[in-house]
């Protein structure tokens, strides 16, 4: 099987969060690398230290790093005996340990058959300098860097924005080019949710791609956690988790899996304590069909799900990451810890989170049950984002429950089932627990039944109202191909 370039699993970072008490913390850790896609700034006058004109501010080199834009992971024909070993091999190939000797790809005009075959034209507008004035850099990482900017003309005139700049020189493969194209496509498609970072426009020139986004000046969720001494109260944690689940449910309904959910990838719009959050960084995200399983090993070590390491996963991997975030919010410690990234992966696969030490004895039983459901190593036992919003710990009769794509998958499975299996499902439905009944009742109402019945047209109409271009890419609507006739009653 052929090999291709890889997207990196983020390196172990010393972000200040206390390791879980049943693991020994390391004596030292590498400094924290700030996420690239952090469109925030604390400087009141970003142009003060920048006498240079657009498109690049002072001190910003035209290329963000020596490494190329990461692509997908290597793929193996059979599962390795230890998922950590191939990951570490990939890291060595990507230059995170001893860097391999790289042969530079010739630039345009220097010859080189491979370079001439790469089309780095995205079809975006090329008038970025005429529309925006760049300020100082506010974030940097593997995929590019982000700058503060001010709109010079058009709808964004006089409005501060964040601009992510990706160097075309680092797009050395067709896959890396497609990664950038897909990230922009996802952000365009999902840019309507209140907890989704707003995407304004994309530009390009001969050297760079420019992604213009909403500017969030309230800082990262990670910074808020550290400012509180590493722990939120249950009520405050609920507010954070509800916002995360809301936007993740929206992404999953559209057929998008984020694959890198962590506190660094949630920004507050302002410095206010009650400011809403926005999800960012879709550089590792992908479209996923309803029945598809992905096998790319991507994400951040502390938040990666077991099935990702086994290279067979779906949207449930995001729910595991939310479970890790919730665990950190409630106790200030990571549920899985080791001194090395390889050790973290082994811990994720084999260890159980610690719910015995302080402060867990005083945390409510509902909160602990919520985290345990999300941190189940069996992905089939995890809640979906919509189900999690109806869990007793978070349940609010006045808060609407989002439509869950799981309902469509379940109906498809029921229609394709044998008569015996359908009889078993009907018998089991009489023993549905109260928690799940609340969720099913909410989903049934969302499907707008008529006289207590649901029809195929009703299923299609409701899903169509949530339709975006992301659904077209992920082929969510194809779920109806096997459902020719449907009449369901609720009682």
UniProtKB/TrEMBL annotation:
The UniProt entry, under CDD domains, shows: STKc_CAMK (cd05117)
Matches recorded under PROSITE patterns: PROTEIN_KINASE_ATP (PS00107), PROTEIN_KINASE_DOM (PS50011), PROTEIN_KINASE_ST (PS00108)
Question: For ATP, which residues are the binding ones?
Answer: 164
| Cited InterPro entries | CDPK_Ser/Thr_kinases, Kinase-like_dom_sf, Prot_kinase_dom, Protein_kinase_ATP_BS, Ser/Thr_kinase_AS
User: Where's the Protein kinase domain?
Assistant: 132-394
Q: Which Pfam families match?
A: Pkinase (PF00069)
The parts of the chain that form a coiled coil are none
Record's protein name: Protein kinase domain-containing protein
Q: From which lineage does this chain's organism come?
A: Eukaryota, Viridiplantae, Streptophyta, Embryophyta, Tracheophyta
């Amino acid at each position: 099987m052929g090999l291709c370039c890889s997207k990196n699993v983020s390196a172990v970072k010393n972000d200040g969060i206390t390791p879980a008490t049943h693991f020994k913390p390391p004596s030292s850790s590498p400094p924290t690398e700030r996420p690239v896609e952090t469109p925030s700034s604390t400087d009141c006058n970003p142009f003060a230290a920048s006498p240079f004109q657009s498109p690049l501010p002072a001190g910003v080199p035209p290329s963000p790093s020596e490494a190329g834009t990461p692509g997908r992971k290597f793929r193996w024909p059979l599962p390795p005996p230890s998922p950590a070993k191939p990951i570490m091999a990939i890291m060595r190939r990507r230059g995170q340990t001893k860097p391999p000797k790289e042969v530079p790809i010739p630039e345009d005009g220097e010859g080189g058959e491979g370079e001439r075959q790469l089309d780095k034209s995205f079809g975006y507008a090329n008038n970025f300098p005429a529309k925006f004035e760049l300020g100082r850099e506010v974030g940097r990482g593997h995929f590019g860097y982000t700058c503060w900017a001010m709109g010079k003309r058009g709808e964004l005139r006089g409005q501060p924005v964040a601009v992510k700049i990706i160097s075309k020189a680092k797009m050395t493969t067709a896959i890396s080019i497609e990664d950038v194209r897909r990230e922009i496509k996802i952000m365009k498609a999902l840019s309507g949710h209140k907890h989704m970072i707003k995407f304004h426009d994309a530009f390009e020139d001969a050297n760079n791609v420019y992604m213009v986004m909403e500017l969030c000046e309230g800082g990262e969720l990670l910074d808020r956690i550290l400012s509180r001494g590493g722990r939120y109260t249950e009520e405050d944690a609920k507010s954070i988790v509800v916002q995360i689940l809301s936007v993740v449910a929206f992404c999953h309904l559209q057929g998008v899996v984020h694959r890198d959910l962590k506190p660094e990838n949630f920004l507050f719009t302002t410095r206010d304590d009650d400011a809403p959050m926005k999800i960012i960084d879709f550089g590792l995200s992908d479209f996923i069909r309803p029945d598809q399983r992905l096998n790319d090993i991507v994400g951040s070590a502390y938040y990666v799900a077991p099935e990702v390491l086994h290279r067979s996963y779906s949207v449930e991997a995001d729910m595991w990451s939310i479970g890790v975030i919730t665990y950190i919010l409630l106790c200030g410690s990571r549920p899985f810890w080791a001194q090395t990234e390889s050790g973290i992966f082994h811990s994720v696969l084999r260890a159980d989170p610690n719910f015995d030490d302080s402060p867990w004895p005083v945390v409510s039983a509902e909160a602990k049950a919520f985290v345990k459901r999300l941190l189940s190593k069996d992905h089939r036992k995890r809640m979906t984002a919509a189900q999690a919003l109806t869990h007793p710990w978070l349940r609010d009769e006045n808060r609407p429950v989002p439509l869950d794509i799981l309902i469509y998958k379940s109906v498809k499975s029921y229609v394709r089932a044998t008569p015996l299996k359908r009889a078993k499902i009907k018998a089991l439905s009489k023993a549905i627990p109260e928690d799940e009944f609340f969720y099913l009742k909410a989903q049934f109402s969302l499907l707008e039944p008529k006289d207590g019945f649901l029809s195929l047209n009703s299923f299609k109409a409701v899903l169509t109202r949530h339709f975006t271009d992301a659904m077209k890419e992920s082929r969510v609507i194809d779920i109806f191909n096997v459902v020719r006739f449907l009449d369901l009653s609720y009682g």
